[in-house]
Structures are given as structure tokens and as C-alpha cells.
Amino acid sequence: MSFAYLPEHAENAMLVLELAEKEAAHLAYTHRTLFAQSIDLQWVQSLVEREDLAEKIDAFVSRFGRLQDHIGEKLIPRFAALLGSEPKSLLDNLAYAEKTGWLDSAETFVSARKLRNLLVHEYMAEAELFLESLQAADEATHMLIDVVGRVKQQADTLGIGN
To answer: What percent of the chain has pLDDT over 70?
Structure first.
């Protein structure tokens, strides 16, 4: 008898996938509502006076970072283990995810992780840098949500998805 996956890892893999799907849905909502606005340098500069916009940025950054962490620290490692891969460093896991097709580019994922620090601190200090970071996070959000979808597709292909 041969397995396409290690059944002893299926339950943990599905638990982290379900959480990732919820986090991705929350991020998608915040992303949609935030980027429905025209975001330019003047908009960024207004964040100091507009607590409602600053709060939306905080929600976006929090959800963006939380999904990144979950994908890198839990989702990819648990699905890699499901497929028989030994525990590895984050970079090794990202390379594995790229090889399996869950992620287009490990380098892009690492770059997106660096955005979080810029998004957390820069709108109060450097509006132009924050605007560039926010625009990059717009693109990175699509990548993160796509990773969750690809892993879900893998689970479905293996016959362990709902």
C-alpha cells in the first residue's frame, strides 16, 4: 500500500489550512475596503489627522502580517510534513513551497515579510516610503491569498479537503 501523503499529518495540516483560509478572508476584506480608496501621497499624509484611516491601516497591517506568519511558520511546514518533508528553516520551506507550486517565488515572499516593518512604522515618519510600501503590500496581499488557495487545492487533490 502506498500513500500520496502521510496520514498522521493530515489533521494538523487541515487545521492550519482552515485557519489560513479564515485569515485570508479577513485580509481580503480589509484589503478590498482599504484599496477601494484612491491612495496617493496626500492620502498618506492625511493619516496623521484621520484616525479612521489610520485604524484601517492598522487592521490591514495586522492581518497582512498575521497571514504571512501563519503561512511561513505553520501552513507550509505542516503541508510539507504531510508530503514527507522533514522540518527545515523558513527559507528551505519557502524553496519547497516554490518547488511544489504553492508559491511562485520564495524571494517575493521574503520581500513581502520585509514590508511589514515599513508598514508599521513609516507612515508617521516618511510618507513617500510608506506609500511605496503600501503599494507593494497591495500586490503582496494577492500573493499571500493565492498561496492559501494553492495549498487548499493541494489538499483537495490529495482527497483531504472538505
So the answer is: 94
